[in-house]
């Protein structure tokens, strides 16, 4: 096979022209003159013997061949950027302020154990942790990243799954002694239930058995909370039944203050993600935290 030393010439500029929507905009981004950008694209088309762009005085558009070429080379350019960023990050000590927003329950159930280890590994990072059960706009409010539990909203944010947890149906032993223990999910309709109001459908609880059945139970809540800790406090006080991630109530399950039921049934898994803004270069402090949480 003949080796073409000019094979990659012009790819980055071509992708930039398409992404920025024109020669002038690409020139400003890449700090080149418009004439230089134009010459590179002309040279690329000549070498490929293919017209990639339709040009008018006001706009550009991709030809069919240009669309196919862009779909392939844009991936190549992105991979090259990621590799370059990764090599540079290996030489940069993660440092600076790292602003994180996370649910209260996850912070108290998981971060309280893992965050000290992270801070010891990266002493030059100053963590600013905001505990909040509502989903905040991390871009407009200046957060570097957020931890989200459950189904993600459609957005331009990058999401990395770091784990998952299953919900457990719990109440105090005194509550179960007074009201009876359910033997199947449908029995919950006769119980005093506590719901998490930040869920999309808090009054519908899903179950499966053996990975086969999809059972939906419409419960009748006596209280709705936007905070899992408050739900747990009400359950501990004997007010009713709630469904919480296992990591939230693990301590009280072990000491017997809360009792799980319906152990043969599984609720839908709740995925745990880190989300952060889409950036051409991810700061080392964010990459360090994301990688750390992915293995812890």
Q: Mind explaining what this structure looks like?
A:
With 296 residues, this protein is an alpha/beta fold. It has 3 domains: 11-90, Arc Repressor Mutant, subunit A (Orthogonal Bundle), CATH 1.10.10.10; 96-164 and 271-294, 3-Layer(aba) Sandwich (D-Maltodextrin-Binding Protein, domain 2); 167-267, 3-Layer(aba) Sandwich (D-Maltodextrin-Binding Protein, domain 2), CATH 3.40.190. The protein is built from 9 helices and 15 strands. The strands form 4 sheets. The chain has a 5-stranded mixed β-sheet with strand order 4-3-5-15-6, with helices on one face. The chain has a 5-stranded mixed β-sheet with strand order 11-8-12-7-13. Strands 10-9-14 form a 3-stranded antiparallel β-sheet, with no helix packed on it. α1 (11-20) crosses α3 (34-48) and α1 (11-20) crosses α4. The radius of gyration is 27 Å and the shape is elongated. The mean pLDDT is 87.
Total number of beta strands: 15
What is the correct CATH architecture of the largest domain? 3-Layer(aba) Sandwich
Strands of the widest sheet, in order across it, are: 4-3-5-15-6
Q: What's the CATH H-level homologous superfamily of the largest domain?
A: Periplasmic binding protein-like II
CATH topology value of the largest domain: D-Maltodextrin-Binding Protein, domain 2
Mean pLDDT: 87
- Runs in which pLDDT lies below 50 for 5 or more consecutive residues are none
**Large-scale geometry:** elongated
SS-based class:
alpha/beta
Count of alpha and pi helical runs: 9
CATH first level of the largest domain: Alpha Beta
* Major sheet characteristics: 5 strands, mixed
- Through-space gap between termini: 47 Å
- Tally of separate domains: 3
Provide the succession of SSEs: HHHEEHEHEEEEHEEEEHEHEEEH
Indicate the radius of gyration in whole angstroms: 27 Å
In which range does the helix fraction lie?
Answer: 25-40%
Taken as a percent bin, the fraction of beta residues is: 15-25%
């Amino acid at each position: 096979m003949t080796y073409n030393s000019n094979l990659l010439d012009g790819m980055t500029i071509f992708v930039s022209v398409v992404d920025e929507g024109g020669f002038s905009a690409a020139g400003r981004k890449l700090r080149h003159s418009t004439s230089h950008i134009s010459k590179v694209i002309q040279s690329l088309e000549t070498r490929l013997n293919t017209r990639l762009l339709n040009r008018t005085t006001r706009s550009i558009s991709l030809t069919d061949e240009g669309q196919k070429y862009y779909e392939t080379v844009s991936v190549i350019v992105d991979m090259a950027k990621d590799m370059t960023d990764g090599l540079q990050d290996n030489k940069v000590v993660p440092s600076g302020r790292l602003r994180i927003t996370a649910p209260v329950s996850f912070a108290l159930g998981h971060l309280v154990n893992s965050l000290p280890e992270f801070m010891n590994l990266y002493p030059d990072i100053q963590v600013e942790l905001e505990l909040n059960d509502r989903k905040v706009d991390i871009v407009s409010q200046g957060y570097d990243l957020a931890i989200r539990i459950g189904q993600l909203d459609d957005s331009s944010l990058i999401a990395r799954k770091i784990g998952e947890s299953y919900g457990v149906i719990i109440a105090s032993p005194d509550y179960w002694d007074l009201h009876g223990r359910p033997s199947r999910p449908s029995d919950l309709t006769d119980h005093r239930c506590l719901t998490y109001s930040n869920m999309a459908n808090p009054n519908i609880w899903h179950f499966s058995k053996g990975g086969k059945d999809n059972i939906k139970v419409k419960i009748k809540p006596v209280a709705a909370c936007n905070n899992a800790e408050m739900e747990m406090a009400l359950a501990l006080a004997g007010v009713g039944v709630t469904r919480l991630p296992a990591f939230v109530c693990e301590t009280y399950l072990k000491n017997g203050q809360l009792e799980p039921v319906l152990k043969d049934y599984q609720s839908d898994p709740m995925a745990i993600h880190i989300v952060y803004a889409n950036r051409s270069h991810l700061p080392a402090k964010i990459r360090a935290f994301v990688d750390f949480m992915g293995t812890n």
